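Intended use. Records like the one below are meant for learning the mapping from a protein sequence to its folded structure. Do not use them to infer anything beyond what is encoded.
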Amino acid sequence: MTSGPRRDPSLNSDDAAWELLDAASFGRLGLSLNNLPEIFPVKYHADGTSILFRTAKGTKLHELIENSHIVFEVDAQQVGDSWSVTAKGKAAVLDKPADIEDADQRPLPDWIPTAAFVYVKVSVASIRGRRCRPRSRLQSMRTFGPIEATS
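Structure written out for the chain above:
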């Protein structure tokens, strides 16, 4: 049974992916150190070219310093719509006073209060996104046909 033309769930532009990323504030930071992957939840701010977040000293910061190449993922699922955006880039700890001052002005959401933190900025090299609007169950049954029992 033919299911008709397939819908491409990929977003049609980087701008569309950035719009979704800009609208959210919670994502996952993927790192790798010594060929071992790690994923950390982070609150962030995106501005259309980069991603900014805060972190305290610890595993995440240590791994970022050792290997600054990261992947960042954000997704959401609502009734009738779901999307995912993945960005890849290079992370750097902000240490110049002007950069820190600028970061202080960004609407970065609070999460875990900590006295000592550093800002990390991700310069995004590539970004891609996917948006899916699921079909109704009835449409899915028509597409794939009835399920037959086997003995």
